[in-house]
Amino acid sequence: FPEGVVGAVAARLSRTGSLPIFVVYPRRRDVERFQRDGSRHYAALIDHCRARGIRVIDLVESLGSGGAPLDTLVVRHYTAAGNRVVADAIWGYLERERLLAATSAP
Fold it and tell me: Cα–Cα distance between 10 and 101 in angstroms, integer?
């Protein structure tokens, strides 16, 4: 995604009263890279978003730091266990940022 596209989408959503949140769903090799050296090849895009006030949820840490073997979370697609990690990470972000309406956890 070119940075300009992300900004344009965020601006359009904001004009409609929505709160844009850019969610990064890393590929397996992204998680492996993060586990190896802590880097992200898409770091510039995240920095671009955050510098412009666009919220970002980067799932690489949740998938790469939880202690579960990567093979149980991501094969070619996310597994059921991987999807649970993703759901928990997004839910946790929404709770921390106080973006949930009065409701109960899933």
Answer: 22
What is the CA 90 to chain-centroid distance, rounded?
A: 7
Q: Is the pLDDT score of 86 beyond 90? A: yes
Report the pLDDT value the prediction gives residue 26, as an integer from 0 to 100. Answer: 95
91 by DSSP, 3-state: which? Answer: helix
Distance CA 22, CA 87 (A): 15
Q: What CA dihedral angle connects 86, 34, 52 and 90, to 10 degrees?
A: 10
For the record, the structure tokens of 52 come out as 């412009």
pLDDT digit string, tens, across residues 14-69? 888 888 899 999 999 999 999 999 999 999 989 988 998 889 999 999 999 878 88
Whether 106 contacts 87, CB under 8 Å: yes
Residues 73 and 50: their CA atoms lie apart, in Å, by 27
pTM over 0.70: yes
